[in-house]
Specification:
Elements lengths: L1 E5 L4 H12 L3 E6 L13 E4 L17 E4 L17 H24 L6 E7 L10 E2 L9 H11 L10 E7 L1 E3 L5 H10 L12 E2 L1 E3 H13 L5 E5 L5 E2 H12 L9 H8 L4 H4 L3 E2 L2 H5 L9 H9 L1
Parallel strand pairs: 1-2, 1-4, 2-3, 4-5, 5-7, 6-13, 7-11, 8-10
Antiparallel strand pairs: 9-12
Length: 307
């Protein structure tokens, strides 16, 4: 297959690219700064794009089997500590997603030989903060910034369905990896022997191992009967305290020092809701169509990553 990945230099994109190349697929990465992507796997084709138009890359779309849209500014920022959601920061987060989606849609519309499938990334933030209610893909949209962002993000490529292109919307949970993402921020306090729950620790974290994230995306691409929205989360979400205790156990570190919610809100503002507000999100549709998780439980997932 020939696959085009927008946003392929991020955590999910790199692992997906590596997995596809191992099976001898042809992968094109669309990147704003190709010269900086020195850690990309050997064999990938890196193509410059501005994130807003189809100029310079639309020719690679002709005859492609799939397009995967992972493009968008990092929700938590580029540094180790989360970046506050100022109005300008929110604008960048939103516009980077909408511009990319519209550009990809326009390129597909102009292509003589259209791709068979488009994978549109999103997040479980679509459902908004939840106390302990379990939701699947039928859950309604939330009312906060993340929910509205996810809705617009998903709709940015909806037009391709009218062109006969199969479209998959993948709402990812917290992706666990030792190469980046939320887990790296969680590990540091434990490595310093000061690990503990965030807030009250009872908020539910819907997570997924990076290997299952990549496998699920490939499973959906390669199964033509799939379409629509899929939650990419492990079937067994856990509380923040359970995840922390598991990390402590595997690293042989204590789990005892809570980080108060008010302190996180004071330091990081609204972005702190990403970890303080719980969500119990289940992958009902993914399970129904036969996908098998390699890491359905948190201890075995973290053991693979940390040990």
């Amino acid at each position: 297959m020939r696959i085009i990945i927008a946003g392929g230099s991020g955590l999910i994109g790199k692992e997906l690219t590596r997995d596809l190349l191992e099976d001898h697929h042809e992968v094109f990465i669309l990147s704003r700064s190709p010269e900086r992507n020195t850690s990309m796997p050997s064999g990938v084709h890196t193509v410059h794009w501005d994130g807003k138009t189809s100029q310079g890359w639309s020719q690679y779309l002709e005859g492609a089997d799939a397009v995967v849209n992972l493009a968008g500014a990092n929700i938590a920022g580029q540094g180790f500590f989360p970046q506050r959601w100022t109005e300008e920061r929110k604008r960048i987060i939103k516009q980077s997603r909408l511009d990319a989606g519209v550009a990809i849609s326009e390129a597909i519309a102009a292509a003589a030989q259209k791709p068979q499938v488009l994978v549109q990334s999103s997040a479980i933030g679509f459902y908004g903060p939840l106390v302990d209610q379990a939701v699947d893909e039928t859950g309604s949209i939330g009312g906060d910034f993340m929910a509205r962002l996810c809705q617009e993000w998903e709709l940015s490529t909806a037009a391709v369905e009218l062109l006969g292109v199969r479209r998959l919307v993948v709402r990812s949970g917290i992706v666990l990896s030792n190469q980046g993402g939320a887990l790296i921020r969680l590990l540091l306090p434990y490595k310093l022997y000061v690990g503990g729950p965030f807030g009250n620790g009872r908020q539910v974290m819907s997570w997924i191992h990076i290997a299952d994230e990549v496998a699920a995306i490939r499973f959906l691409i390669e199964n033509p009967s799939t379409n629509g929205v899929y939650n990419l989360t492990a079937p067994n979400p856990v509380t923040n305290s359970t995840m922390g205790r598991t990390v402590g156990k595997l690293l042989h570190r204590p789990h005892y020092l809570p980080i108060p919610a008010f302190a996180m809100k004071l330091l990081f503002g609204e972005v702190s809701t990403v970890v303080l507000d719980g969500q119990r999100v289940l992958p009902r549709r993914l399970l129904e169509c036969g996908f098998k998780f390699r890491y359905p439980y948190i201890e075995e997932a973290l053991a693979d990553i940390l040990c």
